[in-house]
TrEMBL record:
GO cellular component: outer membrane-bounded periplasmic space
Pfam families attached to this UniProt entry: DctP
Name under which the protein is recorded: C4-dicarboxylate-binding protein DctP
Domain of life: Bacteria
Gene source species: Anoxybacteroides tepidamans
A GO BP entry: transmembrane transport
Coiled coil location: none
Keyword Signal: yes
InterPro entries from the UniProt entry: DctP_fam, TRAP_DctP, TRAP_DctP_sf
Assigned protein family: Belongs to the bacterial solute-binding protein 7 family.
């Protein structure tokens, strides 16, 4: 009897609570918990990229997301999707143009398909050191290059860096230009890079980043060029024991936003995002250098790796070999950009 009475009281209490909640819901706006506060006004930016999280680009994307959230008091949320989990490097520019993602940071080589003049940044030995890269990326030349994206419906926010590119192979050490003869190399889609390997007598094959590991494992090609950070984070070195420190090219990124999306953002949000971008870029250009150095030191511990650093004389031989690329670039695009870069350095 006592038990039945207890159940009755409980039922009345429950019905009362539900009625009270229903009344409250109809008269008040929906209340979100802390995490979701102001959700209805939040601007969400999907930022898609193809490399691992613990790489210069992956870390910079996370830092940018954090700074934007802080500076806008949570009004803007940048959701970062690494490892090509949303789009591969072959798909991401189109996804941005369609507005399916709002932000990407493809490597410069991939932008050359939209704006061929950007090949200037892929020219071998265009940068001697990290100082040169920083001057060009954050100065007038960088601004001019980013402005060229506008005609394609893209707002370029900054140029980020990964690091200098090195050569790897599964065949033998790559020291003399003749060591490249007849080898098949995976390359990013950029005419200058393809020509660079042709000048070495090698066969370049364009392969998207997300397929590189698998193709190396299947021995579909003999070598590739990339930064230490990409070689390390994606374990390319497992199948490519010969690593030449050549610092012959630089892998940079164009951080870009869909222009229609950008133009519709409130002015104060644009300003806060630009502020966050400047801080992130300064951080990225220092951090990327340190990360590549640390990971090279890690790889040197691996007894299966054969690491060779080019001497100054050998670098000079490579430079001479690549000279025709500069002439070809000038013939196609004039000497303006090249002069601006040399002046900035
Ligand atoms: C590559 O394709 O090797 C790189 O562009 C990947 C990247 O985004 O660093």
């Amino acid at each position: 009897m006592k038990k039945q009475w207890g159940i009755g009281v409980l039922s009345i209490a429950l019905v009362g609570a539900v009625m009270f909640m229903m009344q409250k819901q109809s008269s008040e706006p929906i209340v979100y918990d802390d995490e979701q506060k102001g959700l209805n006004q939040q601007i969400v930016i999907y930022f898609s990229h193809v490399v691992a999280e613990n790489t210069p680009k992956g870390l910079a994307a996370q830092k940018f997301a954090q700074l934007v959230e802080e500076k806008t008091n949570g009004r803007v949320k940048v959701e970062v999707f690494p490892n090509g989990s949303l789009y591969s490097d072959e798909e991401e520019i189109d996804a941005l143009l369609r507005g399916d993602v709002q932000m990407i940071a493809p490597s410069v080589s991939k932008v050359t398909q939209l704006i061929p003049e950007w090949q200037v940044l892929d020219l071998p030995f265009i940068f001697e050191n990290y100082g040169d890269v920083e001057k060009v990326f954050t100065g007038e030349v960088g601004k001019n290059l980013l402005a060229m994206l506008e005609r394609k419906g893209i707002k370029g926010l900054a140029l980020w860096g990964n690091g200098f590119k090195q050569m790897t192979s599964n065949r033998h050490p790559l020291v003399e230009p003749s060591d490249f003869s007849s080898l098949k190399f995976r390359v990013m889609p950029s005419e200058v890079i393809e020509r660079q390997f042709q000048l070495l007598g090698a066969k370049p094959i364009v392969v998207p980043f997300n397929r590189v590991y698998e193709s190396l494992e299947k021995h579909e090609f003999d070598g590739q060029e990339n930064t230490i950070s990409n070689i390390y984070s994606k374990s390319f070195y497992q199948f490519q024991p010969y690593l030449t420190i050549s610092n012959h090219g630089y892998l940079g990124y164009a951080v870009m936003v869909n222009k229609v999306f950008w133009d519709h953002l409130p002015k104060d949000i644009q300003e806060k995002m630009m502020e966050a971008m400047q801080e992130t870029t300064a951080w990225n250009l220092t951090q990327s250098k340190e990360q590549n150095e640390e990971e090279l030191a890690q790889m040197k511990q691996n007894p299966r790796m054969h690491i060779y650093e080019l001497t100054e004389k050998e670098r000079e031989t490579w430079k001479q070999k690549f000279m025709p690329l500069y002439q070809e670039f000038e013939r196609e695009f004039g000497s303006g950009l090249l002069r601006q870069i040399k002046k900035a350095e």
